[in-house]
Specification:
With 476 residues, the chain is an alpha+beta fold. Helix content is 38%, strand content 22%. The strands form 5 sheets. The protein has a 6-stranded mixed sheet, with helices on both faces. A 4-stranded antiparallel sheet has the order 2-1-4-5, with helices on one face. A 4-stranded antiparallel sheet has the order 13-20-15-18. The protein is extended, with a radius of gyration of 31 Å. The two termini are 55 Å apart. Bound molecules: adenosine-5'-triphosphate (ATP) and magnesium ion. Adenosine-5'-triphosphate binds next to helix 3.
């Protein structure tokens, strides 16, 4: 578009010049114009064409800038849903507890996404919210931070309703770290300072030191002046999260809110950052949403959500004993050992037995099958299986998250569900060659254990009774 708007006027002008100069020359020849007037006219024409082409050069930028301004305008004109009342107080630093009492909440009128949620969290404790995708974990955080307000019931901090204080004072006590952190294409220093714009350079560096990113930044040629690159592309995922943690710490928050803050990272980096977070949690209240359970085993309290309700709560050991939803989630994620480099996974026979299609296999054969599994590490946003492709492998997600979607007849994609640590898919591929019924795409780096059909078929040759059983349980 830019080239077209630039070329059109200059082409038009050139044509016009050809005509004008030819006509001028003819008129001068016949004595209607003096040669001096002809030269003057050409001078004016040259100046005019230069000016027009200058304007044409700017035009594409102007059009783009106008579109950008329109978007900024749209955001500025957005009417906030959450407003402070005229009598709103300033919220003092939390010193006792955060409490939900009979909270019901729905994003829309059609459906409640939180149902009668009640719990209490003392300050300076570590708290985790776990449960299946869509169960309402992030929604709880949205109500604590007051990005949304409870429909009925109350959310209080030290018995003060969060709706009765100013949003500014409430949020001054909180920092939030999400799964993906946005870095601006400016210096590391300014990226951290986003947390508290008036912070001094030494405060920024202290926060970076606490988030254990200081040495890495110093090792870069430009140190704290290093530009982060478009969306922080100069840094690895783990480094980006550390910068985001430094940004969060700069506010010295009483409440640290983490929404899957480490779940998109590779296992080694994830463990390291979780250790950092545990150190930083001292003297703060941590509310952490995560689908990965091993780090929360040492938390003070775990809340298990299901369909918008808190169905279990307590420390890890207690919840395991209850043998309920949490124990089920825990067992699903147990039984895998990932090598330090993350390139090899060992799985126990007991874990394999929990997968229905393998559950009736003879113990000795199941033991042999363990070594037939292949570890497969797949980066973020890759297609793992494509709808319609012929299936030849069974997948277990050892860690990571995938989105499952199907293509509608009109070509649009419809998201079906999210699968994560301990889930599996494609078991029919072990039995017969059929097209995949859905597309599976990684959402963050994933580690899979895969079992190719030819390995499974070899095993079946040694177990005719099991083959019989399968053909009955999984008829074609
Ligand atoms: N802005 C929104 N508008 C409408 N519905 C929403 C919105 N955000 C979330 N929901 C719905 O509310 C429910 C709870 O969502 P929530 O984000 O709290 O789930 P979650 O437990 O955090 O899941 P995940 O593990 O996938 O992040 C889901 O059914 C979701 O579709
Ligand atoms: Mg969520």
């Amino acid at each position: 578009m830019g080239n077209l708007t630039q070329r059109t006027p200059s082409l038009g002008l050139s044509l016009f010049s050809v005509v004008a100069i030819s006509a001028g020359a003819l008129m001068a020849f016949h004595g209607y114009l003096t040669p001096g007037e002809l030269v003057a006219m050409q001078g004016v024409l040259l100046g005019l064409s230069q000016s027009i082409s200058d304007v044409a050069d700017c035009y594409p930028q102007l059009v783009q800038a106008a579109a950008g301004m329109q978007r900024i305008d749209d955001i500025l004109l957005e009417v906030p849903q959450i407003n402070d009342s005229s009598t709103a107080d300033v919220m003092p630093r939390p010193s006792r507890q955060i409490e939900f009492r009979g909270v019901n909440f729905g994003y829309t009128d059609e459906k409640l996404n939180l149902l009668d949620v009640s719990f209490r969290v003392p300050v300076n404790t570590l708290n985790a919210f776990v449960g299946p995708s869509g169960s309402g974990k992030s929604t709880i955080l949205n109500l604590v931070t007051r990005f949304y307000e409870a429909g009925s019931g109350t959310v209080t901090i030290d018995d003060v309703d969060v709706r009765s204080v100013t949003q500014l004072s409430l949020r001054s006590h909180m920092s939030v770290v999400f799964q993906e952190s946005f870095l601006f294409n400016t210096s590391v220093r300014e990226n951290i300072r986003v947390g508290r714009p008036e912070a001094t350079d030494s405060e920024v560096e202290a926060a970076a030191r606490a988030a254990e990113i200081h040495d890495i930044v110093l090792a870069m040629p430009q140190g704290y002046d290093t530009l982060a690159g478009e969306r922080g592309s100069r840094f690895s995922g783990g480094q980006r999260q550390r910068i985001a943690i430094a940004r969060a710490l700069l506010r010295d928050p009483a409440i640290l809110v983490l929404d899957e803050a480490t779940s998109a990272l590779d296992p080694v980096t994830e463990d390291q950052i979780n250790e950092t977070l545990l150190r930083l949690a001292k003297g703060r209240t941590v509310l952490s949403v995560t689908h990965r359970l091993s780090p929360v085993a040492q938390y003070d309290r775990i809340f298990v959500l299901k369909d918008g309700r808190v169905v279990e709560q307590g420390p890890h050991a207690e919840l395991l004993q209850q043998n309920g939803v949490y124990a089920g989630l825990w067992n699903k994620q147990s039984g895998f050992t990932i090598s330090k480099e993350g390139d090899h996974v060992d799985v126990t026979v007991e874990r394999l037995r929990a997968i229905p299609i393998l559950s009736k296999l003879d113990p000795d054969l199941l033991k042999d099958l363990v070594s037939d599994f292949i570890t497969d590490r797949i980066p973020h946003d890759r297609i793992v299986v494509q709808q319609g492709d012929l299936a030849d492998k069974f997948y277990i997600i050892v860690r990571g998250q995938v989105g499952v979607s199907i293509r509608n007849d009109d070509g649009t994609e419809r998201k079906l569900t999210t699968l994560q640590d301990g889930d599996y898919f494609g078991e029919i591929a072990l039995l017969r060659t059929v097209p995949r019924t859905a597309t599976v795409r990684t959402n963050g780096e994933c580690i899979f254990l895969t079992l190719p059909r030819e390995k499974f078929s070899k095993l079946l040759e040694r177990a005719p009774e099991f083959r019989e059983l399968l053909s009955r349980d999984y008829p074609a």
